[in-house]
Design a protein that fits this description.
With 419 residues, the protein is mostly helical. It has one domain: Rossmann fold (3-Layer(aba) Sandwich), CATH 3.40.50. Helices cover 52% and strands 5% of the residues. The chain contains 20 helices and five strands. Strands 2-3-1-4-5 form a five-stranded parallel β-sheet. The protein is globular, with a radius of gyration of 21 Å.
Length: 419
């Protein structure tokens, strides 16, 4: 069953998937195989040391699922091949850089702030606002896609880095194919990027189920040890901050952290958390629309009900665990702040002030002015209207609502603001 959203796409996409681009897509025509993609990445870089081989199992599972279940179009297969090779090239580059500059291992990522919460709960806009504070360092899209070598601390050189247009081309590809993604979520090389992109170098990342129907990989991912993903995440941050002053705090973000908060806190014991909340019934409709659109870049066979069911089960589990973490002492006092999406939409700067106060951070007048300016320049629906309906998911509203009762009651989450 295809997604009920508008499937109209640019004419060039149809032509590409019908074979009109011929030779341009031939490099990805061979079946995906572990030895094949590893060897190709090594040949492209002239490097051969991937470090630990703990990524072989998930990568092999992913490749098998891409062949057996993802139902990729010709263009989707081409883009996937390029994406996998980038991840493997960067993994080789990370290991090579660490070997050539062993001092990078001594870099300390101190007291980072993580924005977490289910997707579509305001994590992105909160992350973007926090990025306005000059005291913060928020990774941009190009930095997490291509972190080696470290960017220049000089602002002019940073802004002129040649990796920016390459990352922009990859990130803008999604909206160019769909023509509708920007109305849901805008991706760009100079925009804040979330942690999934760094964890993908370990091939333990929700970025893959977001893009593809890969059931065996996804089942493995939900039960795997995420420590290697957080280890690689920390190594990327160490590289990115190499040569920069130590007067800025990393501010990071990903909804996927909900699934692995103990592992996150093991990797970053002094981390602070900004947790966002919104009625899960609204979240399910919105996130399903987003994921269906992302998968539609790579496949013409996208099932709303399957995506909706997966996320319903995932977030019942993750939000119930969030309650258990909150009541079980997982979060250190003074290191977590909870906010409601409805409050943020009504009074965003009040929400930000409360966050700073709760976490013992200073919100300067300059930072607040920068946030206000950002909000004023970002009118609602600037990139189009995101339309979605819970009823498109084929789920029983009353039943699903009851499954989230414990979470809603514990955190005082108001009823759905949009269905």
């Amino acid at each position: 069953m295809q997604a009920p959203a508008d499937r109209t796409r640019p004419e060039w996409v149809r032509l590409a998937n019908e074979g009109a681009l011929g030779p341009l897509l031939e490099e990805s025509a061979e079946p995906f195989s572990l030895d094949g993609v590893l060897g190709r990445a090594q040949a492209l870089t002239g490097l051969d040391d991937f470090g630990s081989d703990d990524f072989h199992e998930p990568l092999d599972l992913l490749l098998r699922d891409l062949e057996a279940h993802a139902r990729l179009t010709a263009l989707g297969r081409w883009q996937t091949y390029r994406y996998l090779l980038r991840l493997l090239r960067v993994r080789l580059q990370i290991r090579d850089y660490e070997t050539r500059d062993p001092g990078v291992a001594d870099e300390r990522v101190e007291a980072p702030l993580f924005v977490v919460g289910a997707p579509r709960t305001g994590t992105s806009i909160l992350h973007a606002l926090l990025a306005r504070d000059p005291a913060h360092r928020v990774p941009e899209g190009w930095e997490l896609l291509m972190p080696v070598p470290p960017p220049s601390p000089d602002p002019s050189a940073f802004a002129a880095d040649p990796r920016i247009p390459a990352a922009e081309a990859e990130l803008r590809f999604f909206d160019q194919v769909t023509g509708t993604l920007d109305a849901i979520h805008v991706y760009g090389a100079r925009l804040p990027k979330e942690c999934l992109s760094a964890q993908s170098f370990a091939f333990r990342s929700q970025e893959f189920p977001a893009r593809y129907h890969v059931p065996n990989y996804t089942a493995w991912l939900l039960g795997c040890d995420m420590a290697p993903a957080y280890d690689l995440h920390r190594r990327v941050l160490r590289i990115l901050q190499r040569g920069f002053p130590r007067d800025r705090r990393w501010v990071l973000k990903s909804p996927a952290h909900l699934h692995s908060l103990p592992e996150l806190l093991d990797a970053y014991p002094d981390a602070r958390l900004a947790v966002t909340h919104r009625d899960p019934i609204t979240v399910l409709g919105s996130v399903t629309s987003l994921i269906a659109t992302l998968r539609g870049v790579h496949s013409d066979d996208v099932s709303y009900p399957a995506i909706g069911r997966y996320h319903a089960d995932l977030y019942v589990h993750d939000l119930d665990r969030l309650v258990e973490h909150d009541t079980g002492g997982v979060f250190a006092p003074g290191r977590v702040h909870h906010s409601q999406y409805a409050d943020f939409m009504t009074a965003p700067l009040d929400t930000v002030r409360a966050l700073y106060e709760a976490l013992g951070m200073e919100l300067t007048d300059d930072a607040e002015d920068r946030m206000r300016t950002y909000l004023d320049a970002r009118p609602k629906d600037k990139h189009g209207v995101h339309r979605y309906e819970f009823d498109d998911l084929g789920l029983d509203r009353a039943h699903e609502s009851s499954r989230f009762g414990r979470y809603r009651t514990h955190f005082g989450v108001p009823a759905a603001d949009h269905a």
